[in-house]
Amino acid sequence: MRILLVAATSFEVAPTYEWLQLQCQQIGNHQFKKDFLEVQVLLTGVGLPLTTYALTKAIQSNKAFDLLINAGIAGALNRELEIGQVIQVESDQFADLGVEEADGSFTSMHALDLLPTNQYPFSGGKLLNPQADSTFLPTVSAISVNKVHGYSPSIERLKAQYDADIESMEGAAFFYVGLMEQVKFLQIRSISNYVEARNRENWNIPLALKNLNEVLIGMLQALSQ
Question: Which residues lie across from 9 on neighbouring strands?
Answer without folding.
Answer: none
